[in-house]
Specification:
By secondary structure, this protein is an all-beta fold. It has strands spanning 3-6, 12-15, 21-25, 31-36, 43-48, 54-58, 62-66, 73-78, 83-87, 90-95, 98-103. The chain is 0% helix and 54% strand. It has a four-stranded antiparallel beta sheet, with no helix packed on it. A four-stranded antiparallel beta sheet has the order 5-6-7-8, with no helix packed on it. A three-stranded antiparallel beta sheet has the order 9-10-11, with no helix packed on it.
Length: 107
């Protein structure tokens, strides 16, 4: 387990070494409700955007934007990422000691 995130609706998202993101619903006894596959290596971290999409970064050197209602990612960026943080309306991702900000009003 690399990351745990409480989503806006109260569900819990986890990221792990098996390259998957998982969503659990505490209102259903923490039942696993969604498994998101698409990274090829461990997922380091994730954050939720204002439009409820999920952004994840992985050891496979990609940043991906997902909708929890679709089976695949919406956008993919190639980079060597190590962490993500939601900063107001931007996603800050870190590669080494550099910080890069990605701004998106709608994805």
């Amino acid at each position: 387990l690399r990351c745990v995130l409480v989503l806006k609706d109260g569900r819990i998202l986890s990221c792990s070494d098996d390259s998957k993101l998982r969503v659990y619903d505490p209102n259903k006894g923490y039942k696993l409700t969604i498994i998101i596959s698409g990274h090829r290596e461990a997922v380091f971290s994730a954050c939720q955007l204002e439009n409820d999409d999920i952004v994840s970064c992985s050891m496979d050197k990609t940043l991906k934007i997902w909708s929890l209602t679709q089976d695949s990612y919406k956008l993919k960026f190639k980079s060597s990422l190590s962490s993500l943080k939601l900063c107001s309306n931007a996603v800050r991702y870190t590669a080494g000691e550099r910080h890069i900000y990605l701004y998106a009003s709608e994805v």
